[in-house]
Model the fold of this input.
Amino acid sequence: MGIIVLLAAILIVVITIICLPVSYSCMLYIGSPFHISGTLCWLGRAFSYTWQYTYGNRPQTEWYLLWKKQQSAPLSTQDAKMTKEQQEAVLHELKKEAHTVTYDELHTADSAVDTAETHKKHFSWKSLVCTEDFALAFFTWLQDILCISRIRTLTLAGTLGLTAPHKTGMLAGALYAVIPASTSDLHFNFTAEEYDCTVHAVGRICLVAAAACSITFLLSRPVRHVLAQWHAARKGENHG
Done:
């Protein structure tokens, strides 16, 4: 009896820990240079992961595990030089192989292209996705995710102007109708194209609830129909 009580207590603790919400923060800068970053935190820094990317640069990551910062050891100058030499050697070999392509290799490549084109023709995902049933399932899933994500802060700031005035007006009307409180610092340029806008969102989400919503979406009839058609096209069973 004592073992059963202990196992039940352990199970309750595990479920409680799993159901604890994960804090997130997202930042998107639409401008020059384009920048996007995101952070996930669970139990403070028991687990924390940050990813950021600026256009033209390599993505950067930072993460904590059990309140300790984890980082990879940087390459030494000698290792970096060797890596560069190895890359040049591989590039040289590829150039040599490019001049010695055989007929069999060309035939194999043509066959692969033909097969890919056949699969592409057989599987028309646009006609399956652009349906009322799939749109209803997708937006239901999106609504559930937004409801459980508990967005505490959502701000849009800066200036935004699209390629045409009517497009800017349609976007402005949609934003004012959906999130009017978040667009007080956002200005629209109706005379010229301009991208200088920052979107910032902070909130919490329960991963168990998000996983449950996603599983329900994946098991819905429209998604199962799309996956079945895709699987049939890959196996060559769809000859339509």
Q: What stands out?
A: Helices lie at 2-18, 77-98, 103-122, 125-129, 132-149, 165-178, 207-218, 221-234. The chain has a mean pLDDT of 75. The chain has eight helices and eight strands. The longest strand covers residues 194-205.
